[in-house]
Amino acid sequence: MTFDHARTVAAGPRQSIELASAEALRLLGSVSLGRIVFTRHALPTVRPVNHVLDAGDIIIRTHEGAALTSVARGSDGHGVVVAYEADAIDPDTHLGWSVVVTGYAYQVTDPVELARFKSLLSPWAPPSLDMDHAVRIRPDLVTGIRLTARDGG
C-alpha cells in the first residue's frame, strides 16, 4: 500500500458554515448513500445504507436478518432513536458538506408503502438478500455544515 501525500494536503484556510434545516435536508436528498447509527446490544452500531427522502422522512430498505430491522421491529411502534449522516466532501480539498439527522426509526408495515419504496429505492446490497423490509426515519433534529474556503485567507 502506498501513501499519496498530495491527497492529504488540504486546500488553504477553511471555514465551517452552519446550514438551515431545510437546506441540510435538501443536500441529504441530493445523495443516495449515508450511514445510520443505532444501538445494538447497548453499543453504538454504524451501517452504510442507501436512502431516499419521502415527505421529509428518510427511507431505508432492509432485509429480515438486518440488525436495523430487528431494532425497529422491537420498538413496539414507539420508534427507536437513531442518527443518520450523509455527506459530500472532496477528498483533495476537504471542502463540501455534512448533514446529521437525529430522530426515530419505525418499521414500515403498510404493504402499499412497502411496494412504493421498493420501486423508488434499489438497494446496493447483494441480490441474494431479500430486501422486503423498510425503515422510516422521522427527523427530530437536522443539523448540517458546509466546509468552504475562507475568504481572504
Structural class call reads alpha+beta
Q: Please write the string of helix (H) and strand (E) elements.
A: HEHEEEEHEEHE
Helix content: 10-25%
- What general form does the structure show? elongated
Sheet bearing the most strands, described? 8 strands, antiparallel
Radius of gyration: 18 Å
Amount of beta strand: over 45%
State mean pLDDT (0 to 100 scale): 85
Low-confidence parts:
none
How far from one another are the termini?
Answer: 35 Å
Count of helical regions: 4
Number of strands: 8
Topology summary:
Blueprint: H1 5-8, E1 14-18, H2 21-29, E2 33-40, E3 43-50, E4 52-54, E5 57-62, H3 67-73, E6 80-89, E7 96-107, H4 111-120, E8 133-149
Antiparallel strand pairs: 1-8, 2-3, 2-6, 4-5, 5-8, 6-7, 7-8
Describe this structure in words.
- With 153 residues, the protein is an alpha+beta fold.
- Helix content is 20%, strand content 45%.
- It has helices at residues 5-8, 21-29, 67-73, 111-120, and strands spanning 14-18, 33-40, 43-50, 52-54, 57-62, 80-89, 96-107, 133-149.
- Strands 1, 2, 3, 4, 5, 6, 7 and 8 form an 8-stranded antiparallel sheet that branches.
Short descriptors:
8 strands, elongated, 8-stranded antiparallel sheet, 153 residues, 4 helices, alpha+beta
Provide a concise account of the structure shown.
This protein has four helices and eight strands; from the N terminus they run αβαββββαββαβ. It is of the alpha+beta class.
